[in-house]
Amino acid sequence: MLSYQSYTANNIHELPQFDCISPEQLHAIKVVSEVYPFRVNSHVAENLIDWSNIPDDPLFRLTFPQAGMLSGDDYTMLSGLVASNADPSLIREEARKIQLRQNPNPAGQMELNTPWLDDEPLHGMQHKYRESVLFFPLEAQVCHAYCTYCFRWPQFSGVENLKFANDSIERLVEYLEQHPEVKDVIFTGGDPMVMSTMLIKKYMQPLLGVSTLKTIRIGTKSLSWWPQRYTAEADADELLRFFEEIVASGRHLAIMAHISHPREIATPDATEAIRRIRSTGAVIRSQSPVVRHVNDDPDVWREMWQKQVQLGIIPYYMFVERDTGPKHYFEVPLAEALDIYNGAYQQMSGLGRTVRGPSMSCSPGKVIVEDVAEINDEKVFVFKFTQSRNPEWTNKTFLAGFDENASWIDDLAPAFGEDSFFFEPELMRRYSS
Fold it and tell me: What pLDDT digit, counting tens, does each position of 272-298 carry?
């Protein structure tokens, strides 16, 4: 069995493939990792990356920081400090300034999503949509490896006031009991599957006593980054028995697998992990953003979705890269994202057409790019809510003027000269209240 070993900028010289990395690329890794977290592990390095094709290999770009993730000025400044062995405190100070300019918690996560109980904010929880609550276990604020595009990079950046984390399952249970409209709890992070089975039980077992709760979701990259969590770790069997317990309680258990490239689920370890999870009665759904340099190709998505369907995974969402962190490096314009989605979707059988997208998780809700159309001689984007802060917005469509360079809803204006989108007045009231 391959033993787990993680590598960061501090011990990258111990990576067996270290000699494959050029001095220029190594310097870029050290510079950019001062701003964005970097961690790769032995499974990823040994089984997923094509070391004969770096730096262009998509899995290398998915895990190893690239110079283009910083603006030219920021990279030049920070590169000079790193190259001159400047005082670490000065490097951290300059890196922190860059971080705070990168919209670290987008879409109103801090301002609008934090729920309250007994006149106290429940930090480490989010309640954006009526039926669903997100919970960030304190011990899950790390991943087996980090994706370079990760929109939750502040969780790992060392800026404590930007993190979501909570260790009070009692407060979560109390909140659920006071909010019976919540049917679905999503454990996220970081990655909940870095926790031991004992800790996973600590957080999830009490929820089985909440009669109004119908589904439990676990957001995880572990199928890709460390499938041995389900096949070879000392408590893997105990974990799977607990999954069976959740299913036997009458709840639906959904493993929300973050899969960005077909290679991630092509290994024997990943295939066996998927088989074992499905044998418990849990359902695996897949989601990922469309990301420049990694999967901005319809044939990559077609191959990935077909492989997922073959293995029993349900394709769920194609997301648009969020407006945070190194978005400028990874973003794909909305019109191009729609072409990629349609190009892959049209090659799928009905079993693969469960997927929705391209979807923006923005302040008002999850907004799908449905189409580009021409109405009254004006070219427009057709958008649709699949989730929304106000449930009455859900499934409603709206139009925006077409812009081939737009990569987020904030880049667009309402079609036909309208002053605002239909949801904006209420959304602004929520921000100001």
Answer: 999 999 999 999 999 999 999 999 999
Longest Cα–Cα distance in the chain: 64
Q: What residue ranges in 173-226 does DSSP mark as E strands?
A: 184-187, 215-220
Tokens 């349900």 correspond to: 314
Pairing of strands 40-41, 397-401: unpaired
The percent of residues above 70 in pLDDT, for the chain, comes to: 95
| CA nearest to 133, candidates 81, 239, 24, 207 | 207
Q: Which of 396, 379, 378 is nearest to 387 (CA)?
A: 396
Peptide bond into 55 cis (omega under 30): yes
DSSP letter assigned to residue 320: E
Give Rg (Cα) of the chain.
Answer: 22
Q: How many CB atoms lie within 10 A of CB 275?
A: 13
**Confidence (pLDDT) at 107:** 55
Instruction: Report pLDDT digits (tens) over 19-48.
Output: 999 999 999 999 999 999 999 999 999 999
Asked if residue 125 lies in contact with residue 97, where contact means CB atoms within 8 angstroms, the answer is no
Q: 0.70 cut: is pTM over it?
A: yes
| Angle between helix 72-83 and 23-32 (nearest 10) | 100
**Other C-beta atoms within 10 Å of 201: how many?**
15
Handedness of CA 231, 236, 239, 244 (dihedral sign): positive
Tokens of 76: 């030049």
Domain spans of the chain, in order of start = 6-100, 116-328
Helices (H), 249-391: 268-279, 298-311, 327-330, 334-345
The closest of 53, 233, 236, 221 to 146, measured between CA atoms, is: 221
Strands 120-121 and 116-117: antiparallel
Give yes or no for a contact between 261 and 294, defined as CB atoms under 8 angstroms apart: yes
Contact 252, 283 (CB under 8 A): yes
- Write the CATH number of the domain with boundaries 116-328: 3.20.20.70
> How distant is the alpha carbon of residue 40 from its chain centre?
17
